[in-house]
Specification:
The complex is a heterodimer of chains A (245) and B (507).
Chain A (H helix, E strand, L loop, with lengths): L2 H30 L15 H14 L1 H6 L1 H21 L9 H30 L1 H6 L2 H22 L5 H13 L9 H16 L7 H4 L4 H4 L12 H10 L1
Chain B lengths: L34 H7 L9 H15 L1 H9 L11 H6 L6 H16 L1 H5 L1 H4 L6 H10 L8 H5 L6 H15 L4 H12 L8 H19 L14 E4 L10 H15 L3 E2 L11 H4 L2 H18 L3 E4 L3 H15 L8 H7 L10 E2 H10 L15 E3 L3 H6 L8 H13 L30 H7 L1 H14 L3 E4 L2 H10 L10 E3 H8 L4
Parallel strand pairs in B: 1-2, 1-3, 3-4, 5-6, 6-7
The chains are: A mainly alpha (245), B mainly alpha (507).
Chain lengths: 245, 507
Amino acid sequence: MTSLTVIYTGLMYFATIILIVGIAYRIYEYSRTPAPLVIPTTPAPTTNSGVVLRLAREVVLFESLFKANKWIWIFGWLFHVGLALVLLRHIRYFQEPVWFWVEFVQPFGKYASFMMIAGLAGLWARRFLVDRVRYISTPSDHLMLALLIAIGVSGAMMTFVTHTDIVALKAFALGLVVFDLQPVPEDLLLLIHLGLVAVLMIIFPVSKLLHAPGIFFSPTRNQKDDPRTTRHIAPWAAALERDKV
Amino acid sequence: MAVAEFVIPELTEYTVVPKINPGAMDKVKSFVAPKGPQEYLGYPWELGADWKERAIDKMGDLLGKYRSLRVFMDACVHCGACTDKCHYFLGTADPNNMPVARQDLMRKVYRRYFTLPGKIAPWLVGAEDLTKDVLNQWYTYYHQCSECRRCSVYCPYGIDTAEVTMAGREILNHVGMGQKYSNEILVKVQKIGNNLGLPGPALEDTLLGLEEDIEADTGVPVKMPLDVEGAEILLVTPSADFFSEPHVESLIGYAKVFHAAGVSWTLSTKASEAGNFGLFNGNYETMQKVAMRIRDAALELGCKRIIVGECGHAWRVAYSFWNTLTGIGYGGEDPFSKKLQQQLDNRYPQPMHICEYTWDLIENGVLKFDKSLNDDRVITFHDSCNVARGSRMGNEPGGQFIIPRNIIKAVANNYQDMPSDTIGEVTFCCGGGGGLLTDDLIEVRVKGALPRMNAFNSVVQANGVNFLAMICAICKAQFTKVLPYYGFDRGQVGGVHQLVSTAIKLD
């Protein structure tokens, strides 16, 4: 077992734990924080299924963003859909035998990498070209895009330019899943790719990537508009009331 | 009209997104509240030595009590979708009036004290210390937000800057920097009963005078009952309706509608204010105290229905929050709620908006109109922000857009909507809401009104519109003040029930 394998095995496990525990903790925090008042942005659905549909339209079609700005929408949507297809394609490295729909998604995932990189590039360009967006962009905003683009480009290069030993790669990945540790392929592009992915996973729970779980807890989108017929009251407010009556 | 000390924006065919002009509005400062109102509300009136600890403490407290604040602090990705949506940015070009930047004034402090990256590498994530300069920025820019929620329509995660502004003002109050205008009003409503400080006898006198005027005008003895026990309907309306033009025309309209319907109704000295500035300051307890007056009046008078007059933020509080704060509504299983619920007539939603009430009567053929009496008016309707984005009317989402327009079309012949990207869900705020309706903020008000003025102008030019109708007391006060700055006549501003009053046929 080379020291490189030890480092990368350790890194992948560490990153995975941080990612899962971190997001779980955030979700716990958000769900435990009360939403004392009924504040959906109206017009809003009046039923639970309406809310589910509203959130689905946001998460799948980016409905509000489409209303706001077609450029951000097209770049953002291309990036996210591309990323989703790429991630689905990657499942093949963690399964044996591979499910049929993961097989089916392989060619889509490969070309989706272009969508992903194009979307990211467009978003990054806006951070330079549009004065309002330049003003609000922090170093971490730029770095996040750089990180994602580097992950996309290094991955795409392995598929289209300099092929990696994917048999060895799959053995390594599958080995992590079943705790049967295998050597990491000593391919520079791959090591860069994995390292950057680990960074992404580690910073996820302490960065703006929390918009992903966050949107499901946003009261302006996940609340029903039925305050006249249902009495919505937070536990701390109900306690105040019990003390008064 | 006094000469403005600032440049009034030019009207254009479409509202142009300006290039940013940093610092354009950073000298604006609404008068700070003196000791009196601050002490009454339970706040300090000047910064103490421990102001920074108090502020950060209060921020932590609010983050633990409001999921909205917590999620909104974390979820923003700086995409820029909101940057060109705020009327104050469009009218002033000050980049801190872009919703994301306004939120970032707080988010940068949140990151510094409440997040790991902000604590160990603040320069990387745009985190900053809370300094006196930052506190002053908060005071300046959280009083250049009318809490209209327009930004929350466009944000991919629904981040609502209004929630951040409310939290900002609560923290500012907590360290001793309160706004004179809003806080004095909150004292008046709690001490005297309404935002204008009109005591009971003055109100009674005003109503008697109005009864005489209506009878002289129409020959019909329409009444304005006050504090009548056992009346079926309690009407709660903004106090401006008793006192200001054109608001009082709507009050006359409500009275005529009740007269034509033949119902027993009453106003109340205790509940003589629909408005609730506790909303603007982001203080739950204050908002509740102010709202409780309505519950107390309803219980004392034994009314079966509670109806709210033409007031924007009051309707948001009434529709969305009264059930939570005061038990006015249905669905509560606890003793506090049930006490009021059993008195209320459960055939009707509680509370109801006067427009819902009037439209019901129109649909059932109870009211009769001579529409030609409004023929000299070519009317357009301004959707007020809190009604549009914080409430509903009727059974379907969006009823708050349809019902007032239906009423107008039932009482008048000439109606024209403003451009569709300026009304309805995406309506532009009048520029005077959220605690900004004060002369020390006139520059903010005039510039913030620009997008709505452009939209109004477009239908004035293209369709001869000469009447801007609305159902909000603050909008009415704001527009009567601001329209002349843009070359329009203040008489073009009026209420929906003013139009009803003009056309209604009383026997």
